[in-house]
Write a structure and sequence with these properties.
This protein has a 3-stranded antiparallel β-sheet with strand order 1-2-3, sandwiched between helices. About 5% of the residues are buried. By secondary structure, it is an alpha+beta fold. It has helices spanning about 5-10, 45-55, and strands at about 20-25, 25-30, 35-40. It has one domain. It is globular. Strand 1 and strand 2 form a beta hairpin.
Amino acid sequence: MSVQEAMNCVAEHQIIQPLLFRLQEEYYIKVDHHAIRINNVSCLCDAAECLIKMHYIFNLDYEYELVS
């Protein structure tokens, strides 16, 4: 699967908040209609930290399922 195919799949589910996904050995954060590759992450924990920081920096609301 390519990055563009992954972005199309996410768009079908109408997810609007930043989203973390992995293709092959690289992690990406989906923001609006762009996929931002996360450099220098060695594991899922580091990638999740980047996603949390993205929410904080841009003062975004978490998805309803993640609020608690």
